[in-house]
């Protein structure tokens, strides 16, 4: 095998490796973004539940009257 062909194949392998690494980084980034969004939604649900509980206590104790 001549050196030009070996160099070409090495370049091909390097390109494929970089593409696979980029794809893995994209997948990791997407997973992180998805986890962040899930946590934000969970936090909003917890806040809404807590607000509902606080309002229920106020209503039950008569503190919510205007």
Task: Furnish the topology, listing elements before pairings.
Layout: H1 3-61
Q: How would you summarize this macromolecular structure in one to three sentences?
A:
With 66 residues, the protein is mainly α.
Work out the helicity level.
over 70%
Order of helices and strands: H
Structural shape: rod-shaped
Give the rounded overall mean pLDDT. Answer: 92
Largest sheet at a glance? none
Strand content: under 5%
Number of β-strand runs: 0
- Please tally the helical runs, counting DSSP H or I stretches of 4 or more residues: 1
Rg on CA atoms, Å: 28 Å
Please give the alpha-carbon distance between the first and last residues. 89 Å
| Structural class by helix and strand composition | mainly alpha
Low-confidence stretches: none
Protein name: Stress-induced protein KIN2-like
InterPro entries: LEA1/2/D7/KIN2
Region (Disordered): 1-20
Task: Describe the overall structure.
This protein is mostly helical. It contains one helix and no strands. The chain has one helix at 3-61. The longest helix is centred in the middle third of the chain and has 59 residues, at 3-61. It starts with a helix and ends in a 5-residue tail after the last helix.
């Amino acid at each position: 095998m001549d050196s030009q062909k070996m160099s070409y194949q090495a370049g091909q392998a390097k390109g494929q490796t970089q593409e696979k690494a980029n794809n893995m980084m994209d997948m990791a980034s997407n997973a992180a973004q998805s986890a962040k969004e899930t946590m934000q939604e969970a936090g909003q649900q917890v806040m809404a539940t807590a607000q509902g509980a606080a309002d229920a206590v106020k209503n039950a104790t008569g503190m919510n009257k205007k």
